[in-house]
Amino acid sequence: MTQSKPYTQIRVGAVLLAAGEGSRMGHMPKCLIQINGQSLLQRQLLALSEAGVDEVVLVTGYHHIAVEQELEKLKPLYPIRGIHNEDAHEGQASSVRLGIENLGSDFDAVIMALSDQPLIDSQDIKALIAAFKKRTTGEIILPMFNGQRGNPIILSGSVIKTILGSGKEMVCRNFMDQHPEFVHQWQTQNDHYVVDVDTPQDLEIISAQQGWPFSLPNCNSL
Predict the structure, then answer these.
(1) Is the domain covering 11-221 a CATH 3.55.10.10 domain?
(2) pTM score of the predicted model
């Protein structure tokens, strides 16, 4: 049985991915979309910070100048630093790898988070950490909602060390596919883990359901 430390003794890091092109959203940085008065980036940072995450590495790529400008405003408020993925065109895996390399392995657990999940809040992150603490099998907690894989996921520090030592091509998804015995599928009835915004229609639906106003970043200035 895996023995978990009390939460007060767990050092938790996070990689927050914001490197995408946002092609289905009209080629704009989704993390800069404002929902209910906050950018999606700030909403994620608030959730992670309030849940007790010690350090966050934000990976930028496309639109990195605009995202980094927003980051500079948020740095005084949250334990975050940014890294630019110059190879963002190679896909999300390259951003994941860069993120964990820059975060390092000095953590009991690492959260891999996306910046386009508007419903994720601190209670969701706390629940994920609690599931990690309480696990009796596995080293990776994968939220599952009605058979659908969710995000964020959380990985043990030992798994992160293994991934970092397994060559540049190894990332979290590859590792999970190759080592299903390390993955604990955490069943949840919370749909926050599977809701993201890929298209304007997604944004309109969430806005209507939650009663949250939204605004898009000024693409002319990006």
Answers:
(1) no
(2) 0.92
